[in-house]
Amino acid sequence: MNKDLTNSGIARQNILNNKYALQEIQTAVGIRGILFESEYRFTKKQLAGFFEVSMRTIENYTEKNKAELIKNGYEVLTDNRLKDFKLIISHQFDPEMDFGIKTRRLSIYNFRAMLNLGMLLVDSLKARELRSTILDIVIDTINKRTGGGTKYINQRDEDFVVNLLRGEDYRREFTDALRDYVDMGNFKYLVYTDKVYVSIFKENADEYRKILSLEKDENLRHTMYSEVLDLISSFEAGFSEVIKKKSNELNRKLESDEVDRLFKEFESQRLWEPLREKARQKMASRDLGFRDALHNNLEEYIDAVSSEDFERFLGEKSMSLDERLEEFKEVFKRLKDRE
Prior knowledge:
This protein is mainly α. Helices cover 64% and strands 5% of the residues. The chain has helices spanning 9-16, 19-29, 44-51, 55-64, 66-71, 79-92, 111-120, 125-146, 160-181, 187-201, 205-211, 226-250, 256-267, 272-291, 307-314, 321-338, and strands at 34-36, 39-43, 74-77, 106-110. The protein has a 4-stranded antiparallel beta sheet with strand order 1-2-4-3. Strand 1 and strand 2 form a beta hairpin.
């Protein structure tokens, strides 16, 4: 991940989409603001005081980054909502306190938007200190919720075990087809597995292993996300049928150049494009956001990790592979007891 939050919109959004880190950051920062519509809100005047900059600085950064700030909770109050906000201030605070609300339009920021602004401000020492604190808390929060590391964070997805096990059956079909219908030595298993990987995520097995710093005895597929495993299974199952059919038509095993041509035609089918785009986006974005691993060949697909993905891999339904297998064991045991 780009640690310079002032320059990376994706890095900022990865933090702002992580509700578990936001909870810890809010506790650490300890700033509350004005409780309005069940959220703490801040005026420009309050933020200028907190970040120790001028109101003009807050206004300039807000105007320059308005679209991003609106997405994360910045808004302008008018009419009845502004009246309600003023009424709440009169009840919560000394009426003589100046919140800069003698206006018909008032900009307010929730906690996410306040953090968003703090990650943009380069003119504030307080903001710089806040960014350092944020990064530390984000790393600690992810490590705490994943048990100390993210190499196998993909396994915390509740779909992972089913997809991995189902994928093993399709993998067996693929290797059986290569064995029975392709006239090459054992090298063919590596060659055509790599062709599948390169077609889906533009990396062969060795390149993928290097990016994730995997040891030789670590299984690549045990680190892959469910969507990637599904697409690999589809490729392997589909291409198994292609080479089997061609071999039966010719009534002989296929030569390597024939298999290469078949694969080129197979991977070029239009139906793979949306699935491939999704798999690349998920792999590139999640690996950068969770694992701090950059897939250079997939850089154009990198986006912020969604709030749903943070819930998926860090939330209450996520769990380690050991816990997941134990859960499956209990399910199978209950089913057996019913027989």
